[in-house]
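Protocol step 4 of 6: record predicted structures for both targets in the notebook before any analysis. Target 1:
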Amino acid sequence: MQFITAAVLAAFVGYAGAWYFGVVEGNFALLLFLATVVTGLYWLAERMVFLPRRRQIATQVAQDWEREQLARGGEVTPAARDLVVQRQMQQPWWLDWTAGLFPVIIAVFVLRSFLFEPFKIPSGSMIPTLLVGDLILVNKFTYGLRLPVLNTKLTEGTAPQRGDVMVFRYPPKPSLDYIKRVVGLPGDEVAYLNKRLTINGKEVSKQELPAFFDEDSTAYFKQFEELLGDRRHRILNDDNRPAFIPGAENFPQRDLCRYSVEGVVCKVPEGHYFMMGDNRDNSLDSRYWGFVPDRNIVGKAFFIWMNFGSFKRIGSFQ
């Protein structure tokens, strides 16, 4: 078994290494699922086969040791006998690295798959709400529980609302997770023209705030407080960026969008959502690559649990 286990562990390490160096496109959910299954099988085998076998061997070895000690006139004490048994009962390395890890891996698997999943913000598309380096938590059950890997819905949960900050699988490349704000719900007509947002013919209210200083670009940007649904949040606009949408892709149901020099107007299809970043002129979102189908939803982002550059960032957000 130790050779089989070594091969299995080497496969996991090889996959992780290939993922790290970009040789293969990694899937952490699949990797965690496989690790749970493999260590779970070893854990069952340990409880049902290997542990009883070691107990039997340990009992026999202890009895042989007692007879040998008595034959030589040596002393037999309970403590010495327990030490002999304990040595025989120790798990071999290949069980230590499989069955021994199962309780931890299954706990992480359940927590990450059905309750909360951590994410790191990699880009500035959600500035000023979320900054690069923010470590956030995503609620995995608000929008309904889903099977890991397959992403099949198990429970309905609550439908996403306008203004929610959502993590989803990027439609053009579902192996990537994106985070944006829900702007359009199924059936909505969303218009973003001349940098003003309109939903179903009603302009979304926004109030100008003091300019926002972006430390990464060392530049100031116009900042507004926007009321989207019942959520008040801040957005940024860059006067140096044009209103039109350059380089929009040929995404599914693109015919539901109309592009012009002023921006874009889209009719959100059923079962889909229109997503936008709060950093409106520095966000590749639904304006560029289309709608997010319900099956791509990962969860609702709600809490910053750490930012090593600024502990003041810790807390909930809208």
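Target 2:
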Amino acid sequence: MNNFLNNQNWRYATKKFDAAKKISTEDLNILKEAIRLSSSSYGLQPYKVIIVENPELRANLQPAAWGQSQIVEASHLIVFANETKIDDSAIDDYLKNMSETRNTPMEALAGYGAFMKSKITALTAEEKNIWSAKQTYLALGNLLNAAAELKIDVTPMEGFVPAQINEILGLDKLNLNASLIATIGYRHEEDATQFYKKVRKSHEELFITL
């Protein structure tokens, strides 16, 4: 656990990546698996994770991300896109996966499925979008933690125009919406931010014990 906390102190939102350093396929697969294993409400994972490697496509995305250099300098660009249309069929697909994975009859899952549908499909379109977008933050958390263990830098980003990202990547046609961006790679030795002391609230300010 001490090593985990040391790695959390090591990580920061990298401002300048070393474009010459690339993440190995092995390490990228570990990060992908960490994202895949992330917790989510009901286990539904109502999102897709787009990994953008194409340099020309990333250059096209940069203006939509406020021109931030990390978009093109990082080893990889990850876009977390939440699903915008969640209906009964999405829940049925999840139940089928659960049935096959756990060797459980579909009939035994009917009650759970009905409960999920009563809570999720009853939401308005706006409420569904907010709910599914929140799930991507859980996946981002796993990415941040796993990357720190591998000494891979991650910069989580909300500084972008979702509509523009959606248009460039064709996400609207897939009923997806860009909710988060994360650039991953290795910090440049000239990035002065890596030497800043981490600023966080004290235990006294942050925690309340009742």
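Step 5 preliminary note on target 2. Residues 125-149 form the longest helix (25 residues). The domain at 2-86+121-206 is CATH 3.40.109.10 (NADH Oxidase).
Proceed to step 6 after PI sign-off.
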